[in-house]
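Replying to the earlier thread about multi-chain prediction with a worked example.

Input:
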Amino acid sequence: MGSGIRCILPTERRRGAIRLAGNGGQWPASGVNDDLQTLFSFLRFPSVSTDSRHKGDVRACAGWLADLLNSSGLSAVIHETPGHPVIVAKNLHRADRRTVMIYGHYDVQPADPLHLWTTPPFEPQIRDGRVYARGAADNKGQMLAHVLGAAKTLAGSGDLPVNLVFLFEGEEEIGSPNLGPFLAEHAASLKADMIAISDSGMVAPGVPTLGYGLRGIACCEVIVRGPKGDLHSGVFGGAVANPATAIARLVATLHDADGRIAVDGFYNDVRPLESWEREAWAEVPGMSDVDIAKITGAPALFGEPGFTSAERIWARPTAEINGIGGGYQGEGSKTVLPAEAFAKLSFRLVPDQDPEDILAKVRDHLVRHAPRGVEVEVLPGHHGKPYVADPGSAFGTAASVALSRAFGADPVRIREGGSIPIVRTLSETLGADTLLLGLALSDSQVHAPDENFPVAHFEGGIRMQQALLEELAR
Amino acid sequence: MGSGIRCILPTERRRGAIRLAGNGGQWPASGVNDDLQTLFSFLRFPSVSTDSRHKGDVRACAGWLADLLNSSGLSAVIHETPGHPVIVAKNLHRADRRTVMIYGHYDVQPADPLHLWTTPPFEPQIRDGRVYARGAADNKGQMLAHVLGAAKTLAGSGDLPVNLVFLFEGEEEIGSPNLGPFLAEHAASLKADMIAISDSGMVAPGVPTLGYGLRGIACCEVIVRGPKGDLHSGVFGGAVANPATAIARLVATLHDADGRIAVDGFYNDVRPLESWEREAWAEVPGMSDVDIAKITGAPALFGEPGFTSAERIWARPTAEINGIGGGYQGEGSKTVLPAEAFAKLSFRLVPDQDPEDILAKVRDHLVRHAPRGVEVEVLPGHHGKPYVADPGSAFGTAASVALSRAFGADPVRIREGGSIPIVRTLSETLGADTLLLGLALSDSQVHAPDENFPVAHFEGGIRMQQALLEELAR
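Result:
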């Protein structure tokens, strides 16, 4: 799952918030249609990519998926990698038709903590109109909608109106280590005019959402070192700089008092928001300042002056301290003057900021602002470029129409605040725009217990895929 | 052990820095005199007060000590408390003589990590002129010197020139929870004109050291709360304040850029240094700026402008962050925007600062500087008042002469940077000045593996006790 789902991380999930529905909430067995039965079969594979004990399950799931694709009238190939397999499935391609790639992943996150699940994670159940299972939203439910949509069109007309390439990997949840090399090796046979991914969310139930941008990221860790060992703060305090104080003073220089980032040149390459974006985003459901305050539970909103919450999240860069630590972490007090302290920083970037340029500027800033009496080391971490496509392109228009046909409402056009590195990899390797047709919800509990996916979004997703193929053929 | 020993805490002890001496370094068995044999017996009790499995050992140690006191010609009583016993021993008191109390403690810190000891912690050994064992310096070696000194004088003349009260507790290492009530209950029978404690250190080997002051302490914890749960920093970053950033910005307001404490009124009640102190301290061995830089290994010294390291440590207050934490603490990166973050603060105080007044001022400061978008809570912690006595008093002069007779050099007069709450309790309850006649060294490894105590300081301590009784009688 890309990070387009607005999630409260599982550590803070309010227990018991999701209760077993009464009988009325249970989907009657007779009401589970074939499409849902197929989804249930898919969800029963514990295809946990990070856990070597599930290697056989991941493999079995890939085999099941390839069989489904082949029986739908596509031609599927299981490609071995050093890790879990990549599946590529195509219809018969014709030179006079556009080629669309649909990317998805059939691996899932681990299901623990198991005791927080209302029903077992690999025994799918429907309650109150949602499918509950690990992978229901991330990503099996979303990707299967595309597969079943294509299968229905094939079953109906014996052909698809476009060249279709399904690209399904089994390692998204572990960072797609083998997909980049696979794409580079098979770039010629994977050539596409456009790429669609449903691995993110809608802004609200039933509100079709077209994502055309992502923030990039640049991470680093800064370590402040003082005395050679932890000192007694009574015996030495006052005579040597305290690294815990120093790390606080250092990272406090990253912003000005109003919340702007104070690193020299940080905003140099930031592309201003288009005026249509500001207008459109003001209307996006679930993204008003009131909504964001309610979802996050923050005492008050706070961010860069002059922008709304949606603008701050989707189109403005940030500097965040993801972790800070030094000295005594236990209960009560311990009068230690720690030898070192650290802060883990990440910067969300927007077009046209370059992660390596930003990391260099941040390093300069941190070294220049090093407090007296300590040494500062900056360790660069992973990074990825921001991404933005044109939602007004032919592809964007086709996707918009498909969304509106499938869900009976005009889609909202948004960017995502998170970073999905594979989007950039796909677009750069295959030379095509990527759009995000997310179907999950902010309370779909992705990566958390009681993951779920609305049946209506699954069914809408199937219609969306059929409409998308038709619209792309125009 | 009071905090007067300059210690690198055990977590950062450089392993292997202390090696087994060759045969030449071993004290030959025949060379261990009766006093050292007595010390060895004392050290063999694993009188670890914090560990209930050692309750019997603590009790046995108290019994052994009472027997030793009684057999020396004193009258010892073991007083039960809700915890470990207090032992009080006296000679026959006469109304026309001064009364001196010697305080000490027979309990010790736990010995773990055991694997870092060169020889077992409760099997004392002498190497290179030092006794190695848990409790050798803290506090058995130091307090036993006083006992043996008194015993020798008694053995020699059949009487002591002053009224003597030994007060030995078994709970110093767990914060003396029962000593305060014991003192209050027995204040009348414990009345003394002066109190001496050897539970700290000399500034350098063989340099007799008279401590006449201690810093106080005031602790608190500040917690910054933002969103109701941890958030994905991509999905919400930019729109809500980050508590990890906020805690850094908040505690960064505690000092100005030069290292002065920026809390309003913080220095109001600070008693200026006496000019004789500044002159005397400039000459104290081991406390020059060069010494402090070398001992701590800090890249550079840093502290309040206008003061030397000794002055900053002994006579100026501090604000230290003993711990700071929030968000991801593990390896690598995790793009979390944490729900809360904390800092554990302690303030070392000097006469005439009042801990409760300082805590109130600090709370005001933190609340007033609360960053936007978060809530700030300040939890007050333990505190103790600073202490200073007059080293030029009759008692101070007698102690100085005793130190100089015992060690063949004039004592240096210092304050301690740490805080020993019991000093204040003793002085206030019994209405007498307390002086610190520390005998350990900065590398005595108190509270750490390979704790040790110089044989020469043990022997000097015995002479010091004999001389002290004589000088106090003048």
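Chain B has 13 helices and 18 strands.

Feel free to reuse this layout for your own posts.
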